[in-house]
Write a structure and sequence with these properties.
70 residues, alpha+beta, two-stranded parallel sheet, 3 helices, 21% strand
């Protein structure tokens, strides 16, 4: 399912992101998920209470030019 979605070229206004395990697939695929959102779209990231994962989210959101909300 993930491979089909990532190759679809579709974009979304809202993505709830809770893919795979926090320290594996979820961290490595976040940049792709951010790219799947429209210019004014939102990604709601689950599990950002894990400090190491939160840092990944902060870094990749900044790299994608996205604003973080708490």
């Amino acid at each position: 399912l993930w491979d089909d979605l990532r190759s679809s070229g579709r974009t979304f206004d809202l993505i709830f992101y809770d893919l795979g395990h926090v320290h594996e697939l979820r961290s490595t695929a976040l940049a792709e998920v951010l790219a799947m959102t429209t210019a004014n779209g939102y990604v709601i990231a689950d599990d950002v209470h894990f400090v190491a994962y939160r840092h990944v989210v902060e870094q990749q959101a900044a790299a994608a030019g996205r604003t973080l909300y708490n």
